[in-house]
Amino acid sequence: QKEGERLFIIDVDCGVDDALALMMLFAAPRARVLAVTCTFGNTSLQQVCSNVLRVLAICKQTEVPVYGGAEASLLGDVISATHFFGLDGLGDVAVVPGQEPPPSQDQLQQEPAALALIRLAKQWPGKINLVAVGPLTNLALAVSLDSSFPSLLRSVYIMGGNMEGRGNDSVSAEFNFFADPEAAFAVLNQYSCPLHIASLEFCSSQVLPWDFFETCFACGSEKATFVQRIMEFCSTVSKSELNMGWAPCDCFAVAAATEPGFIEASEEVAASVELAGHLTRAQMVVDWKGRWPNKRKIRLFTRCDVTLLKKLLTNMMR
Amino acid sequence: QKEGERLFIIDVDCGVDDALALMMLFAAPRARVLAVTCTFGNTSLQQVCSNVLRVLAICKQTEVPVYGGAEASLLGDVISATHFFGLDGLGDVAVVPGQEPPPSQDQLQQEPAALALIRLAKQWPGKINLVAVGPLTNLALAVSLDSSFPSLLRSVYIMGGNMEGRGNDSVSAEFNFFADPEAAFAVLNQYSCPLHIASLEFCSSQVLPWDFFETCFACGSEKATFVQRIMEFCSTVSKSELNMGWAPCDCFAVAAATEPGFIEASEEVAASVELAGHLTRAQMVVDWKGRWPNKRKIRLFTRCDVTLLKKLLTNMMR
Amino acid sequence: QKEGERLFIIDVDCGVDDALALMMLFAAPRARVLAVTCTFGNTSLQQVCSNVLRVLAICKQTEVPVYGGAEASLLGDVISATHFFGLDGLGDVAVVPGQEPPPSQDQLQQEPAALALIRLAKQWPGKINLVAVGPLTNLALAVSLDSSFPSLLRSVYIMGGNMEGRGNDSVSAEFNFFADPEAAFAVLNQYSCPLHIASLEFCSSQVLPWDFFETCFACGSEKATFVQRIMEFCSTVSKSELNMGWAPCDCFAVAAATEPGFIEASEEVAASVELAGHLTRAQMVVDWKGRWPNKRKIRLFTRCDVTLLKKLLTNMMR
Amino acid sequence: QKEGERLFIIDVDCGVDDALALMMLFAAPRARVLAVTCTFGNTSLQQVCSNVLRVLAICKQTEVPVYGGAEASLLGDVISATHFFGLDGLGDVAVVPGQEPPPSQDQLQQEPAALALIRLAKQWPGKINLVAVGPLTNLALAVSLDSSFPSLLRSVYIMGGNMEGRGNDSVSAEFNFFADPEAAFAVLNQYSCPLHIASLEFCSSQVLPWDFFETCFACGSEKATFVQRIMEFCSTVSKSELNMGWAPCDCFAVAAATEPGFIEASEEVAASVELAGHLTRAQMVVDWKGRWPNKRKIRLFTRCDVTLLKKLLTNMMR
Ligand SMILES: [Ca+2]
Ligand SMILES: [Ca+2]
Ligand SMILES: [Ca+2]
Ligand SMILES: [Ca+2]
C-alpha cells in the first residue's frame, strides 16, 4: 500500500450501472482495486464474470484479479432481471472486434469470491473498503465462513435497500435486497464495520437527464462509445416509460466510497430487513425513532453533490 | 337532509386528538353528524364512550346518538396506548363539576356500532361521509355483516396507516393500523367507495408549534380550557421528547372531510396492509408504481393548507 | 327447555357432509335445534341458505329459523370449493318437484347470523351447544360484536383444523380453517367455553367404506334417496381418486355433541392457528408439550366409536 | 476405496446423541469415514470440535480429519441448547486423565468444513454418503459455494425436521431445523441427490427404555463408561420429566445409512420448510397428497427395526 493509497474491493452483478461503477472506481485517484468479485443478479454469474472482464479490458485493467461467487441466493433462487439491462446485463450489444479490446480470460481466478474476500481481508486487516453493488450473497457467505471477516474491513459501501418502502423490484423492495433478502439481513445484522448505504430512494432522487449522458458520449472516446452502446437498451426502455433521465445507482456507492465530499447529508440509524412479509419481503426497515437502542447503527445517505457526480462520470469516460 | 347540508358519522377511539376532531366536526358549517361510533384504541371501549359523551357535553351536542363498538381487534387483541394520552385517553384530568357540563348517559345507545353504521347507511344511501380516526374494527365488522355497506357510503376519510414505512407504534406501522391490522386490510381491500387517507407521515409533516396552541387557549372559553387541560399530559410528554410542537392527527381527516380547500395535493394509488411481516406487520404498503393495475385506487393526501387547519382549530375552541 | 332436552345451534356451509350433519342432529333424541346459521364455504352464502332450507324440508323441520351470515372471510376472501361437492355444494342435483318436498322460504330470517347467535345465547345463558361445521366467520363476528358471547355458551363443537399438519385444502391446512384463518384464530384464542374439535386427521382416520353407504341407501326412504342423489357427485370424484370410502367429516362433530359415548379418547391441549406462514397459513398448531402453560386448553378428539357413527347414519336415513 | 467399502462424511453438532452416532458409524463394518465436519448447534462450534476430538480418541480414530464449520446460522443466530445435554453438549463431565485417552489437536484441520465437503465430493464423485445430524448450515454453505456439490454425492442422510408438526425446540419445529431454518430450506430445495430423513416423530416413536442403556453400560468397557458418564446429565433431566427412556435421534440416521435392513418403511414425498410463520417457523412441511407434483421427492422414514438398533448400540460400546 503506497502512501495515500486507498484499497478497494468491488462486488458486482455487472449490469450497466455496475459497468459505470467499475469505470468510476478505476478512474478514482489513489484508489487501488485489489479484486473484483462477481455475483449473480442482473444476469447469470457466468455472464457477470464475462461482463466484468469486458469492462476491465475497456479500462485497461488487465491485472486486477476477478473472482466468481454466488450463482443464486442463499435459498437457491435466481432473480429475473432482463427487462431493463437486457439478457446479458449490458444491453445485448456484442463485443465487436476492433471496436473493443478483447477481454482477457486469464484474469478470472479459481478461488471462490467469498474465500478471496476473507483471504484479502486477512492480508490487509483494517485497510479494505468493500463496495457492494449487487445482491449481497457473497458478503453473507464470507461472514458465515469466517465470522471475523467484517471486523477486518475498513468500511462497506452498499447500493441496495430502500428507506421509504418504495420498491423497484416488488411493491416495497429494492432489486439487490429482493434478489437475496436473507443475505441482506445477514449483512445488516452481522457486519460490525462502518456500513454505508445508498438506498434506492436516495439514488432515485438524483436522476441525471438524458442530455447529460449525450454530452458525456460526445467526447467520442473508446469508453464513451462503449457506455453509449451498452446504455442504448436501457435508455430506450426508460424513455418509453417517460422517464426524464436515469440514475446509475451503483455509481452513487462508488462516489461515496471514493470522494469525501460527495455525501452531503446522512442519518445514523439502525436498520434490518423484513424476511417474512407477504407484501414487504426484502424491504429494508429503518428504525428512525430509536426503538432498537441496542442495535448497531448504519449510515444512510440522504443528500449528495450531484454536480460532483456528473463531473466524475464525465471525466471517467474521457 | 336540508339543502346544502352534509351528513357525517365519525368513528373514534377518543384520545385527545379524537376529542379535537369531534370538536372540529361539530364546528363545521352545514355538517350534520348522524352518529358518533366508538372503538377501543387509545383506551378501553368503555372509557372511549365516556370520553365521547364528555366531549359532546362540552360541544352542547346532547342529541347526537353515540354507539359502542369493538372492544378488541378482530383477532382479540387490545393495544396499550397510555404513554401519550394517559390512562383515560384524555390526559387523566377528571371531570370537575361546575367546570364542565355533566356528560349525558342517555346518549349512549344499545345498538352496536357496526349495526348502527349499516342501518344509517341504508337510511341515507350515498349520502354519508364516514370519518374514521381510530382502529378500523367497526368498519371491518360492518362490511363483514353486510357486504353492501361500503357501496352505500358517499366517502370514507381515514386517519391511519403510513406511506413511507415510518411507524409510531412499531418501527414501521402507525397506531390505528397496528391496533387492528386485519381490520385495516379489510377496509383497504373491501371498501369500494371513495377512500381518503391522512397517513401518519402526512399528518406528522405538519406539526403545529406549541405557541400556536397557547394562543388558542388564551381565549379562555370553556372549550379552550377543556382542551388545555386534556392536552397537558401529552404536551408534557411531547416536550420531554424535545418535540417542537404537535400534530393533532385526527383533525386532518376531519378538515379534509369538511373543508374542500384543505387538501392541496394527493396521490391516487392502490394500497394494502402487510399482515405477515415480523418487522412490518400493519405497515400500509403503497403501490406507487402501478404494479397492481387491477386494484382499486385510494387517495393519499400529500399536502394541505396548514393555515386553514390553524384557523379551524382556533375558531372551534372559541 | 323441557326436562332432559338439550339445546343446539348449528352453523353450516351446507355441502354434502353438512347436509348429513343436519339430518343427524335433527334425528338426535332430546336435541332441540334453536337455529341453523349459515356461512359461505362449500358454496356461496345464498346457495348455502337454499341448501339448508332444502335439507330442512326433507327433515320436516319447517319451524326451525335459518339465519344468513358471512358472505366472505374477515379479510374479504371467498374460497373456491366446487371440486368435491359440485357448484351448489350438494352435488348439482336439482330439486325435483314431487321427489322432494318444496323448501320453505319463510324460514329464512332477516336478522344476521352473528346477531341471532348473540341474542339466543343471552336468552338461554349456559344452555346452548353450538356445533360449527363451516368456516368460523360467524363465530368470530359474534365474539367481536359481544365479547361475552362465548361465556354464555354451554359448549362449542367444531369440525375444522388439523393436528398433524396434514391439510386438504392446502399442503398443511384444513378447508374450514383455510377458508377463514383469522376467524379460526379468533375462536381458538377468544372462546372461553368448553371447545371440542374434530380435526381433519381425526375424521379422516375413520373413512366409511362405499358399501356401507350403499346399505344405507337400500332402505329407499325419501331421506336415503336424497342423500344418494347429493352424494353421487362426490362419490364419483372420490372413487376416481381411488379412495376406498368417505368420511362425512361434519357428522363427527354432531355425533360428538349429541352422543356421550361417541368420543372414546381425546387430548386436552392448547392450540392456535398460524396466520403468517407461506406454506402453513391456516394450519392449526397444537401445543402437545405444554409450552404455552397459560393458554386455555381445548379438547381434541383422537378416537371414536365408528360403529355408533354408522348406526346413527343408518337410522337417520330411514 | 477398497472393494465393498462405503465412504462417509458425518456432519455433527456434537451433543450426546452425536457422540453415539459417531461411535456407531466408526463401528460399522466396511464404512470408511473420510471426514468429520463440525457445526454449531448443541453447543458452540469450538466446543463441538473439542467434543468430536474427544469421541474420536475414545474410538481410536486419530487419523480421521476434523473440520470446523459454521459458528452460527445463515442469518447469524446461535441457538441455546444447554437444557438437555449440558453446557458443553456432553453432559459437562470433564476429560479425566487416565480414564479417557487424551484428544489429539492435530486432527483439527485449517480448511473450513464447507470447502472440505466440496473438495472431497470432487475427489470421490458419486461415492460419498453424507450423514448430517446437526443444523444444516455447512451443507447450505457448500451448495451456495458450489451448486454442483449435491450432484456429486451418493446420498444424504439427515436427522432433522418433523413430519406431523410436533416440535421439540418450538411448538412445531425440530431442533436442528429450528437452529437454521434457512439452511434446512436450502438443503430440501437444492439437494438433488437421494435425500433420506429421520424426522423427530420417527425417532421419537422408538424410545429406548432406561434399562436397555443400563445393560449396555454393564460391559464396563472404556466406551461404555464414557457413554454412561456423558449420558448422566440428560438421563437425569429426562427422568425428571417422567420419560420412560430416550431416543438417541442421531443414531437413527447413522443406522439408516449403514445398515440396509434398518429402515422397514418409508414414504417418498416432496417436502419443504416454513420460513415465515409466527408459530411454525422451521417446521418441515410435507406434501403428503402430491400437490407439488414438480418438486423432487425425498424419503421420509416411517418404521425401523428397533431390535437391530439396540444390537448396534450394544455392540459399539463393547
Ligand atoms: Ca448492480
Ligand atoms: Ca384516534
Ligand atoms: Ca361443512
Ligand atoms: Ca445432533
Feature tags:
homotetramer, 318 residues, alpha/beta, two-stranded antiparallel sheet, 19% strand, binds calcium ion
Structure, described:
Four copies of one chain form a homotetramer. With 318 residues, chain A is α/β, with parallel strands linked by helices. Chain A contains twelve helices and twelve strands. Chain A has a ten-stranded mixed beta sheet with strand order 4-3-2-1-5-6-7-12-10-11, with helices on both faces. In chain A, helix 1 (16-27) links the parallel strand 1 and strand 2. The longest helix of chain A has 19 residues, at 222-240. The radius of gyration of chain A is 18 Å and the shape is globular. The two termini of chain A are 27 Å apart. Chains in contact: A-B, A-D, B-C, C-D. Bound molecules: calcium ion (CA) (4 copies). One calcium ion (CA) binds next to helix 1 of chain A.
> So how many helices of chain A?
12
**Terminal Cα separation of chain A, in Å?**
27 Å
User: Tell me, what's the shape of chain A?
Assistant: globular
Mean pLDDT of chain A: 95
Radius of gyration over C-alpha positions of chain A, nearest whole angstrom: 18 Å
Structural class of chain A, by secondary structure, is alpha/beta
Unreliable parts of chain A: none
Bound molecules: calcium ion
The topology string of helices and strands of chain A comes to: EHEHEHEHEHEHHEHEHHEHEEEH
Which pair has the most extensive contact?
A-B, 26 and 26 residues
Strand content of chain A: 15-25%
Describe the biggest sheet of chain A? 10 strands, mixed
Strand order of the largest sheet of chain A: 4-3-2-1-5-6-7-12-10-11
